[in-house]
Amino acid sequence: MNQRVVVTGLGVLAPNGHGLEAFTAALKTGKSGIKHHAHLAEAKFACQVGGIPENVEEIQKRYLTDEELFAMNPNMIYAAIAAIDAWTDAGLKRPVAGDDTVDWDTGAIIGTGIGGIDTIAEKLAPKVDQGKVGRLGSTMVEQIMSSGNSARLSGLLALGNQVTTNSSACNTGTEAVVDAFCRIREGRAVRMLAGGSEGHSKYIWAGFDAMKVLNRTKNDAPTEASRPMSGSAAGFIPGSGAGVLMLESLESALKRGARIYAEVLGGYTNSGGHRMGGSMTAPNPLGVQRCIQGAVAMAGIQPSQIGAINGHLTATFADPIEVANWSKALDLPPAKLPWLHSTKSLIGHALGAAGGIESVTSVLEVHQGFVHGSVNCDDLHPELAPYAARVAHQTFEMPELKVIAKASFGFGDVNGCVIYKKFEG
Amino acid sequence: MEKQAEVMDKVVGILTPFVKNPDALKAISMETSILKDLKVNSARLVDIVLEIEDAFGIAVSDDQADQVKTVGDAVRLIMATGKA
Q1: Which domain does A168 fall in, by range?
Q2: Contact between residue A125 and residue A133 where contact means Cβ atoms under 8 Å apart
Q3: ipTM of this complex prediction, to 2 decimal places
Q4: In sequence order, what are the residues at sequence separation of 6 or more whose Cβ sits closer than 8 angstroms to the Cβ of residue A190?
Q5: Which superfamily, per CATH, for B4-83?
Q6: Is A312 an annotated catalytic residue?
Q7: Which residue of B18, B46, B50 is in closest CB contact with A67?
Q8: CB contact, 8 Å: B43 with chain A?
Q9: pLDDT of chain B, 84 residues: tens digit per residue
Q10: Fewest CB atoms within 10 Å of the CB: A192, A249, A361, B5?
Q11: Closest partner CB to A138 (pick from B19, B20, B47)
Q12: How crowded is residue A352: how many other Cβ atoms within 10 Å of its Cβ?
């Protein structure tokens, strides 16, 4: 007998806001987190704008001790802040020092796309190459291992169920939610923190800049640089931060009187095999459609019940293809497509954190009944003309929004889709 | 050559961020055990030794580091190495 799975907590540290109140306000008012960064200009990046959470040096002191911070890089710090926020938002208390109790029923899947590359590039590699291995200190491994962000959480929250870091490029955060959902559904855990984090290091962003997939045309107008669905889209804008959901069995949530944001009706992940037009960096359209259809089928809903789509929509050439895939997968003509919008227009593409932050966004939207404006696409891409009436340019209240679809389509031709439904008892 | 009290002060300063038992800091003495009393994470002893090396301009061998169990052990090691 499958457990029903609900969302009982949310945590977010985004380039345009920390915490649910600030982040929700930023979404609603169209506040961009994209800024010009001098260190990118100094390093001769073509794209010199990006999204980095602000005031983290202050914020982190409220969450982490000096001893903990000593062995944590930004990727891990971002994940910890968002996860602890989701934990406390779910009504749970942080463990007290000296308490040896382990919560065997709660785990975490917090993914990352790149991970601790800044530790490697700034500390590990230089010292090793200088023949100074002995000067590295004890904290390298826990910061550079791919699972660094989730492993640290185990100790911060005394987690006793599965604790792992998944990785599937741009699909990482969404995949984490799907996998956590399945785990609870099968009864292997009662609660799972699920989402993703990504640091802001120039060493992460360099590879994308070199591939020429970043928008280099708006260094003088940062808030206009991230342009999903626009006719003048010229590549994505890199972002960073973390977004974490607390998923919980409905049974447990009801038993402890938890506040329930939404139910996870269904989720699906797959790959396109780099065939039929797919490649390392481009999606196989059939793979995308099968993913969306898989999620919808599991959710047991009609496509027409979906009120809004929080898309992958990064501001590359793939945007119009994605929208066409949604239309085909849902078998809905352009005029009947759910509202289209992209959170990346405000925060950039946060890579491993994208699916996490955008899932938090989707749950906030379906819970409160609004769709945030997808900025910077007034000059809609010509191929999206048939869908013009379905693009949410401005934020609007939508009390009738009951079901929202969130999907990510990542490098590697990997896909993920989750269907959330407003919980009304 | 720094006096023992000054060296101990510096050592306590280096240890403080790693101490998980703040109460033990208040009663700290030469006999205080770094692992047992101050509850420092044993993995971080490596980092503490590195900081001591940098702060006092000395080199500490792995064998010497292994002998340091108390605050006093660290202070005596520093003072002995400095003289050599």
Answers
A1: 5-255
A2: no
A3: 0.87
A4: A105, A106, A161, A184, A248, A249, A252
A5: ACP-like (1.10.1200.10)
A6: yes
A7: B18
A8: yes
A9: 569 999 999 999 999 999 988 889 899 999 999 999 999 999 999 999 999 999 999 999 999 999 999 999 999 999 998 754
A10: B5
A11: B47
A12: 36
